[in-house]
Structure formats: structure tokens, C-alpha cells
Amino acid sequence: MHKSEFKSALSGLSDNIPVWFMRQAGRYLPSYMKVRRNKSIKEICANPDLISQISYSPVEDIGVDASIIFYDITLPFEAMGFNLDFMEKVGPVITPKTNSRIGHNYDPDKDKYALEPGIRLFKERHPDTFLYGFVGGPITLASYIIAGSSDRDLEKTIHFMMKEESRFSELMDRILEMIITISKKQINAGAGAIQIFDSWAGSLPYGLFDLYLNKYLQPLSSEISKYAFNVYFSTRTGSYAKELSKTEFDFLSMDSRSLLSYIHSTCKFEKGMQGNLDPVYTTLSPEVALSETRRILDDAKLIDRYVFNLGHGVLPTSNVECLKEIVKMVHTYGK
């Protein structure tokens, strides 16, 4: 799909349904694993050529309609006063460089990674392909810093919120500023939209989620919507759809626990929808995956702004052929 048609679909002006997959440039692809045999995540993300190459590979290998720039949401932490290591089977591990547990403001001059050059090189090489930029969501990023690694249920994060209210507020202000700065940098470099990955937001209990939305998500959505199409992704937030409808995000990307038509109606039909095939289906037979894909497409049939995607990221065990078949079905489905 040409990027102009992809843009039309985002605006609800196309009968064709676009499809791409979160975490689509990753460990399930042989082309990616070939690069990873000799390079770390940090080395790849410091190299514009490799960023561009890996970002485009899913378009070539499985036929998706858009790329998302290859990067990691935790990399900017190094420019905020933290050490960052990627550990096998653990993921990002974050430790403060000084006695300050919450670091300092994001310093672009200390960001050594090649996000912007990678985007510019991608656009130069693939001018007809739509490209997403991306950033982490505020509470998800904060949770990595507070817990020192993944805190999916936000147990440590919520404890810090309650016990260290002023320090938590200071950390969140710094993170919000960083997210906006990096989003603008990606848009200026040529990204056509920004996706905010706030994977653990749904672990917040209602009272804290409402506070979080009003204090952080609303200002973030208001600011970022000034510059580009944007997508807010979170998990376990289907019951918070009414609250999310108050934000200015253009699209909501929902996990597989949500019925998209219900979320759309709860948002008074004002939000674009993205999702939401459970990634586990991509590890099964194409027949099983296609049956669930069709159910989702049928449910989303009356949503005017809709992008087919997964309910979370592609898995290392995802089947390439299964993903190809899903893409073909979406392309032939139509509205």
C-alpha cells in the first residue's frame, strides 16, 4: 500500500484496510536474526543503515503496509542519567548513574542513538512506504525506572506513587518532556505518525488511572496531536474506554481482551481503532488464525478509521507463513 493510500485510510477515506504488526521487526524473522547474531540492540540502534534495513524487512518479508522504526523505548534513559543493559530473558535493566533514583531531564546531546538519521535514511530509501515513529507511554517508562526492569503489574510502581508522591511527580514530568521531545524529533525527521506504547497502563486501578489520564495522558495527547497522526496502545484498558475517549489521541490500539466495535461506540465513534488479534494465534495454524482474523474484521466492519494489527507484539515463536496469510486476508477483505 502506497503511503498516500495509507494516509487516506487513517483519515477514513479509503475502503482498503491497512495492516501492520506491532514488534513486526524482531526475533521471528530470519532476516532479523541474521543481523542479531553479531550485533546488540544498542549497536543496531546506533547504526542508521541497520535501523533502516530492519525497519523495512517486514514489508519485504510478510507484505505489511507500513513500517515502524526499529528502536527501543528505554534507550533515551541513558540521556536521562541511567545505565541501560539488555539481559537475555529479562529485557532492559535500568540503574541510576548517580545517587538520584529518578535521574535528570532528558538531554538530547547525550542521546547517542541514531533514531533521526535512521528515519531519514529509511525515507530516502523507501519514499513510498508509510513509517511510524514510536515512544513509550509515561507510566510504562516510569515503571522501568522505578522497578529497574519490567514491572508489568505495576506493583513496585504503585508503591512508589503512594510513598514518594513528589518524586514520582518529578519523574513523570521529566518523562513527559522526553516523550514530547523525541516524538517531535521523529516527526521532523520524516515519520508519518507516532505510536505511544503504554503496555502496562491497564494495571493501574481505576482511581490512579483516572489521575494518570488527567495529569499526563491528556496533556500528552493534546500536545502530540498538534504535529502528527498518533496511536495510543495499552493493554487491559478496555474497561477504561470511556476515560480514554476524553483524550485527543487519534487512534486507540486495543489488546485482544477488547471488542473493537464496543470500544468504538463507547468513544462515541470519534476514535480510530487499531487491533486486535491475540499474538498467540500467529503461532498456530493459518486456518485457526484466519478464522479469528475474520471475526475481528467482521466486528470492525463499520469502523471508518481502522488499522488491523495485533493485540500486542509479534512473538518470537510467531509463524512467518501464518502472518503472510493474515496479511492476504486483510488485503482482500475490504470494507
Summarize the structure.
With 335 residues, the protein is of the alpha/beta class.
Describe the structure.
- This protein is an alpha/beta fold and 335 residues long.
- The chain has one domain (3-333): TIM Barrel (Alpha-Beta Barrel), CATH 3.20.20.210.
- The protein is built from 13 helices and 9 strands.
- The protein has helices at 3-10, 30-36, 41-45, 48-62, 115-125, 138-147, 155-163, 165-189, 206-224, 241-244, 260-266, 286-299, 320-333; strands at 66-68, 82-87, 91-96, 130-136, 193-198, 229-234, 251-253, 272-277, 306-310.
- The chain has a 7-stranded parallel β-sheet with strand order 1-4-5-6-7-8-9. Strands 2-3 form a two-stranded antiparallel ribbon.
- Helix 11 (260-266) links the parallel strand 7 and strand 8.
Based on the coordinates given, report the CATH architecture: Alpha-Beta Barrel
Per DSSP E runs of 2 or more residues, the count of β-strands stands at: 9
> Count of helices?
13
CATH topology: TIM Barrel
Order of helices and strands: HHHHEEEHEHHHEHEHEHEHEH
Number of domains: 1
**Assembly state:** single chain
Mean pLDDT: 96
Helix content: 40-55%
Main sheet record: 7 strands, parallel
Strand content: 5-15%
- Strand order, sheet with most strands: 1-4-5-6-7-8-9
| Shape, per Cα inertia axes | globular
Supply the helix-strand structural class. Answer: alpha/beta
How far apart are the first and last residues' alpha carbons, in Å? Answer: 16 Å
Q: What is the C-alpha radius of gyration, as a whole number of Å? A: 19 Å
